[in-house]
Amino acid sequence: AQTIHQWPVAEIKAVGSPLSLGCTIKGKSSPNLYWYWQATGGTLQQLFYSITVGQVESVVQLNLSASRPKDDQFILSTEKLLLSHSGFYLCAWRTQNYAEQFFGPGTRLTVL
Amino acid sequence: QQKVQQSPESLIVPEGAMTSLNCTFSDSASQYFAWYRQHSGKAPKALMSIFSNGEKEEGRFTIHLNKASLHFSLHIRDSQPSDSALYLCAVSLRATGGNNKLTFGQGTVLSVIP
């Protein structure tokens, strides 16, 4: 069975500080991977997607970057956090042949 | 750019009632239509999806799609307090391959009162 983990579970960071969020998928080779951002109680905004190792496409410019260093790993980062980065960050995966996306448990980020 | 709108924004129903949630989309070439449910503080999880016009029923849940009207809906029969959650509709232009970008609606908050 496939499992998806995100770390950390929650972060409280200062404006201007760096950030790195991680996502790992086990039990599925070559998944399509996604990063989403969700404001409190709001809709899901897709940030990045990756079809293969080393290849990441940006969907929305929010002063964030993403990388896929391994087949099962997706990293979201920034060198300088803004207040507007606060929210719920979700990683998701899907196979090439099926549209449904499966979400990880998420990371709650608070920027002060 | 695909636009997806949900109605109502929030809904309070008594236990046992029928609940109806609506979603409209803007691109008639869309191929994948889904409802996701998200309990407070948790990850969204797909409830049901449909690819072609018509209805599909799974237990207490029914999804209905009318592509000509650019509209699909979710109906919950015999609503339970455990159904209380944020419901997000999602639409994609492609069902498979590449980045089938899912565009989500803004969500409907459902509260089922015992």
Structure, described:
The complex is a heterodimer of chains A (112) and B (114). Chain A is mainly β. Chain A contains no helices and 11 strands. In chain A, the strands form 2 sheets. In chain A, strands 2, 4, 5, 6, 9, 10 and 11 form a 7-stranded mixed sheet that branches. A 4-stranded antiparallel sheet of chain A has the order 1-3-8-7, with no helix packed on it. In chain A, strand 4 and strand 5 form a beta hairpin. Chain A starts with a strand and ends with a strand. The model of chain B has no long low-confidence stretch (mean pLDDT 94). Chain B has 114 residues and is mainly beta. In chain B, the strands form 2 sheets. In chain B, strands 2, 4, 5, 9, 10 and 11 form a 6-stranded mixed sheet that branches. In chain B, strands 1-3-8-7-6 form a 5-stranded antiparallel sheet, with no helix packed on it. The chains are: A mainly beta (112), B mainly beta (114). Chains A and B meet through strand 5 and strand 10 of A and strand 5 and strand 9 of B.
Q: How much helical structure, as a percent, in the residues of chain B?
A: under 10%
- Overall spatial form of chain B: globular
Low-confidence stretches of chain B are: none
Query: What share of residues are in beta strands of chain B?
Result: over 45%
Rg from alpha-carbon coordinates of chain B: 14 Å
Quaternary structure of the protein: heterodimer
Please trace the helix and strand order of chain B, writing H or E for each element: EEEEEEEEEEE
Please count the helical segments of chain A. 0
Q: State mean pLDDT of chain A (0 to 100 scale).
A: 93
Shape of chain A: globular
Straight-line distance between termini of chain B: 41 Å
Strand content of chain A: over 45%
Number of strands of chain A: 11
- Compute the CA-based radius of gyration of chain A: 13 Å
- Considering residues with a beta carbon less than 8 A from a beta carbon on another chain, report the largest interface and each chain's count: A-B, 25 and 26 residues
What structural class do you assign from the helix and strand content of chain B? mainly beta
Q: First CA to last CA of chain A: what distance? A: 38 Å
